[in-house]
Amino acid sequence: MQHQQITNSGDSDSIKVFVRVRPLTQGTGLTTDGDQGLCLTVTSPNTIRLHSKPEPRTFTYDHVADMDITQDSVFSSVAKNIVESCINGYNGTIFAYGQTGSGKTFTMLGPSDFDNFTDDQRGVIPRSFEYLFFLIDRESENAKSFLCKCSFIEIYNEQIYDLLDSASASLFLRENIKKGVFVEGAVEKFVTSAAEAYQVLSMGWRNRRVASTSMNRESSRSHAVFTMTLESKEPAKEVVNIRTSQLNLVDLAGSERQRDTHTEGSRLKEASSINRSLMCLGQVIMALVDVSNGKSRHICYRDSKLTFLLRDSLGGNAKTYIIANVHPGSKCFGETLSTLQFAQRAKLIKNKAMINEDTQGNVR
Amino acid sequence: MDTTLSTPTTGPRLSHTEITNMASTYSHEWRAVCDKFNNAQDLSEVESRKDPENDPFRSKYKARELLREIYCSLKNFDVGENESVNDEADQRPTEQPVDGGMEESFGRGHCGDSPAGSRAAKLGAVEYYLGVNHVETEELSAGEEHLMNCMTLLEKCSISPENVSLFIQVRNQLGILWAGRDEIEKAQGFLETAEAMYIRYMKEDGQPPMDLTEFFVAEEEALPQQERTKRFEMAYTHTLYYLAQVYKNLEQYEKAGGYCHSTLQRQLEFNQFLPLEWAINAATLSQYYITKTLYMEGRHCLSAASVIADLAGEVPSEAAAQESEAEAEKRDQLRQKRAEIARCWIKYCLNLLQDAKKLLEDNIGELDMDRQAELRATRLKEEEEKERGRKSAVLFGSSDTFDSICGLEEKVSCVFPVDFEEARAIFLVGQTYVNQAKEYFEMDGHVTDHIEILQDHSALFKALAFFEEDLERRCKMHKRRVDMMEPICKDLNAQYYLLVCRQLQFELAETYYEMMDLKLAVANKQDDLDAHTVKKFNHLCSSSTKFYQMFLDSVRSPEGKWPEKLEDEVLRPALVAKFRVARLHSRLISSSKTIQLENLNRSLECYNFVVQYCKDNPEAKSAIETELELSEEMVSLLPLKINRLQANLASSN
């Protein structure tokens, strides 16, 4: 497939979406094994057609990759640009989204999680590390110095756990005028090479596995966020320019677990008979509060921990890519549709807030 | 604690003996049926929560078996009765829903205390439980079938204390079921019928009706009246809760709002609520009302929210929070939720002031005396109407909270202020809530929230300043805004808070601009400008320029390049900023002709930028029509002025 380089000329900072279709192979553990029916066709490098009844539906994204795409071209399309931006002081985020078995881990890490970091099939994350340190080495030649720290956390059931310190209790999100949003007390490990960064990642990944078996935390229901903080120092005339940026690599919970309010359509929330709570009354009321009429209002319901942590990436001051992984098997139709719809909604996320301006009597 | 409810004085017509009379013959078997029912309830509600992940419905299936057995026993009890009972096997549910709000069609036949009626009611109850069980185990069409069987069995029955609960609950379930299938109108039909049935029952009978479980308990276990009432009212509260959701899905927002309001009121009335959850919901509803300019209703919700939030108990001390995690959690929850409610109050005060300002201002944003007189006059009329409206509105409160809620309401007005005194009263209430909210949302830890509260505080000052007639004092109010925002604007890291930074920069620039205008107005009343005033005036000009410039710089790339094309969200603000900077440069007062010339050249440069940008990007024109027109004018006029000044300067050298 012809690979297209996405250029960075004046691109607006809205969220970009990359859809990847995995090959139809045996032994995925999905119920589609042995079923050769396909529910979708990649019709161009930007479009995918879903064979829905009665009418097929076409979805358009920044990039659609068919089964035969190489790991290297996925990296070039999605991550290369973001890593470059990080070196220049922008924040960047890459999300992986899709149902369990759709190839998320393969895309992000590679064939068998962590065996070999040199494999031709290694995923976006190891390649990003390599490229990042390649750029750091290159930049270091012209008197720039870099400091790189990693943290790795997991969000499960709205609780935050530190994957680099399995003994820690749940942590809190806080904000600071200088540092932005951060997880208070999360372990930060300094790394000086791609191999070290990779070690930190694999250690956290293992802890995630252990936690999911020993503490009843299902990893398919948790989000994992690996953050690299990059600080660069550049001596300029008499002052030292310090820039920091963050690269977030996010493995979202399997989409089949993401039965959030947005995908449920018209289903009614039932009252729980167990306690005195009508849990979702607030959401109903919230939907009534009109945002369009320019009135100032306050909504008391807090963001989820994940959106709060990555607020910057979701329509803020950052470059963001979502990789939506789908399985082409016809049995996966429902999940694939909801993944494609999610990815489409993500495209619409823009900075909701605006510059407030008082237009009354300002031309005097 | 339950509030005591007055029950109708007519004694219960319902005799439990009669209900179980036909079963008494089989008292032994009957007891077995009751035991099975108890087991099924227990399996379904308690045991099922412990079911393993890989067999999630184990207990539900067991319960289903028991219900089926009960059904068969019930059928057998009636052998020898001459009642013709439809065999439920032939009762395929009709495609059309039976309900559509036609309450005239309710049966007037059986009553629960006739043997046939009693039998139908029992069978109906089992069908109901079977239906719910199938729905819970994700077998929707089988569930629907059972629920429809229940409806059919009860068709001939009248709305009586024996049946009314089942009537309502089966329709609640069908409403949920159809909404889940995206057939909202069908769901609406069932739920509206349930609502009509409740209203009619309460009008015609109103005694505490039987609960569904009571069909299958021994006589001595009949529920007390109060418990019956509670369960029945709860089922109806759920009807309203589902209707609120249905209307929201049908985009009938006003109706949905009304049903949310009623649901909240019933939760209070029957003491079925969790204080904090309830308070947050009421506060959220207030925000719906204020976006609809319904301040009386908004204020009522907020007062209720504040009072009910206080029922959630005392905030544990910091020391206690250090000691135990549970106390820490409780402390955080209570403080956070109360701060959230305070923030809703802030928005109430702010919108009330801003809306009044919109009504009162003339086309240059000053207070219009004629409008003020007009508003005073209409307000008298409105107050009478409001009073009438208040009487017809659903008011919140239970017997022990009602007075506190009304008391809190009286502390702030809900009508538009017409003069400074009235505006100030609202401002002060808002400011009190600002301080309350800031106690929890401290800068360190809650940057975004804290700044939003400050922005509201600044907006409160701005709205109040409109009502202030003394220009010097008005200027001081704007100075307060500057003092609040400027230090934060300096410290805030734009890397993470770009948008907030831009908002603050723009607002500071505008505030200084406003102050500069006010100083000018004051100076124009004086005969001559003293050096001090000039200095002050120039300082305001430069400060405003500085912040506009900071905002403009935030649009540049990290390498300092201007974008070819401005992004939508900064297009207008950026061009407006350029335009203002142009004006500010031409306003600066200087006795030096050289400096004057520099300022004018800068000014021209900025005007030119605006004109040129709109030439290159015609789609931007609509965003800044007025400013563009003035810029074009200045681009043609300024060069003449500059030339004159240059000539002047050359001749004097």
List the helices and strands and how they pair.
The complex is a heterodimer of chains A (364) and B (653).
Chain A lengths: L15 E6 L18 E5 L2 E4 L6 E4 L2 E3 L5 H8 L1 H8 L3 E8 L5 H5 L15 H17 L4 E12 L2 E4 L9 E5 L3 E5 L4 E2 L3 H21 L8 E13 L4 E12 L29 H8 L16 H5 L8 E9 L6 H15 L17
Parallel strand pairs in A: 1-5, 1-14, 6-13, 6-14
Antiparallel strand pairs in A: 2-3, 3-4, 7-8, 7-11, 7-12, 9-10, 12-13
Chain B lengths: L15 H9 L2 H19 L12 H20 L37 H22 L3 H15 L9 H17 L3 H21 L20 H25 L3 H17 L5 H17 L3 H16 L7 H6 L1 H36 L8 H24 L9 H8 L10 H21 L6 H21 L3 H21 L6 H28 L5 H24 L13 H20 L5 H24 L8 H28 L1
What does this structure look like?
The complex is a heterodimer of chains A (364) and B (653). By secondary structure, chain A is α/β, with parallel strands linked by helices. Chain A has helices at residues 71-78, 80-87, 104-108, 124-140, 194-214, 281-288, 305-309, 333-347, and strands spanning 16-21, 40-44, 47-50, 57-60, 63-65, 91-98, 145-156, 159-162, 172-176, 180-184, 189-190, 223-235, 240-251, 318-326. In chain A, the strands form three sheets. In chain A, strands 1, 5, 6, 7, 8, 11, 12, 13 and 14 form a nine-stranded mixed sheet that branches. A three-stranded antiparallel sheet of chain A has the order 2-3-4, with helices on one face. The longest helix of chain A is centred in the middle third of the chain and has 21 residues, at 194-214. Chain A is globular. Chain B is mainly α and 653 residues long. Helix content of chain B is 70%, strand content 0%. Chain B contains 23 helices and no strands. The radius of gyration of chain B is 35 Å and the shape is elongated. Mean pLDDT of chain B is 88; it is low at 1-12, 80-98 and 100-105. Classes of the chains: A alpha/beta (364), B mainly alpha (653). Chains A and B meet through strand 9, strand 13 and helix 6 of A and helix 6, helix 8, helix 9, helix 10 and helix 13 of B.
